[in-house]
Fold ABC-2 type transport system ATP-binding protein.
Amino acid sequence: MSDAVLEIDRVSKSYGSVVALQDMSFSVRAGEMFGFVGSNGAGKTTTMRIALGVLSADSGEIRWNGEPITFETRRHIGYMPEERGLYPKMKVTEQLVYLSELHGMTAAAARKAADEWTERLGLTARRNEEVQKLSLGNQQRVQLAAALAHDPEVLVLDEPFSGLDPVAVDVMSQVLRDKCDSGVPVVFSSHQLDLVERLCDRVGIVRSGRMVANGTVEELRASGANRIEVHAPLANYGWADELPGVTMISHLDGRTVLELADGTDDQAVLRAALDTGPVHEFTRLRPTLTELFRNVVTEERAA
Ligand SMILES: Nc1ncnc2c1ncn2[C@@H]1O[C@H](COP(=O)(O)OP(=O)(O)OP(=O)(O)O)[C@@H](O)[C@H]1O
């Protein structure tokens, strides 16, 4: 049996003629933070809704600890829906207690959890305010508290960071990291790729309803184009033009960026650089997650 807590296995879904998901697969393990990224309309929300049972799949399976997920096991997921799901006229604590009770907590435990999470998320002064009177960012904090208060075994969060100020982003990042470190798998979608790169152990890039890249940030970055930056101040423009398998990307102020085709001998490139004079730097350039994402989206547009 795999050690995955939550598995999305070849899930497909169409809305009429719109194919939203095609054989979407990925899994999240205990203590792992999984970032789910993709263009608008790529299928992230649809996947999360199916995982939570809010929406049914046309085919495929969602498994929980190796078994098909059930109504009972779904209650152990903390979910933050994209459309948010709070009752606008309910007060913050009242709302959190009510939602935790729906997940099977006793009134006393729900009350204690509401107090703890409102404090942790900086909402102590708002406990007795109606949700509709809070700013959007504070409503979002309440929404996160609602996902956390019933002590879930997995967290599935649809764009939890959108619209938050930098301090709130830090608070939320720390809460999610702590949850993860305590063994709770966390899946969240986001368009803030720098944040995903910083926080996530594993990232899945979705394109047109399919998972097109899935791995640790390091694995994904290593899979990008093989580029080298050479700082050789005396090198002339075009110094690497004759080297087989090497394409010059840029040359400025003695710094040249070269792209090496698969199998190209980088030591031959280094020797050629040394032939021009001193070499101060010879560095492998790894693409950022944002660059990888752009490549994926560009491939989509070209397809
Ligand atoms: N209720 C619906 N009826 C018809 N089509 C839908 C419905 N919900 C989603 N879709 C379509 O399914 C596809 C996937 O949408 P989804 O909301 O899952 O994408 P997303 O990756 O979450 O996008 P975003 O980043 O914009 O939130 C899109 O083509 C969308 O238009």
